[in-house]
Amino acid sequence: xxxxxxxxxxxARILDVGLTLYMWIIIIRALISWVNPDPYNPIVMFLYRxxxxxxxxxxxxxxxxxxxxxxxxxxxxLVIIFLQSFLVQSMAQIALxxx
Length: 99
Fold this sequence. Notes:
Blueprint: H1 2-33, H2 42-61, H3 72-98
Helix pairs in contact: 1-2, 1-3, 2-3
């Protein structure tokens, strides 16, 4: 059973690193949007391609177009923090039970 515990722990760690990395990508995209970047820059294109599907989904669910500020990055970051606090921690505790 310890093998299953190690597997769940490894998946939890990878998930935690992936969520942290995606959170930083969202933050960088939000900061870049303040300075009117070149849309043909490969880095800007990559940031938009990797974040736009998630951000556009949040914009559709929570339409706040009248306030003039896009708060979808904040909502996505809060969801990531929730997933790290709940899902990753739960997986780590489950892994401990199998060891």
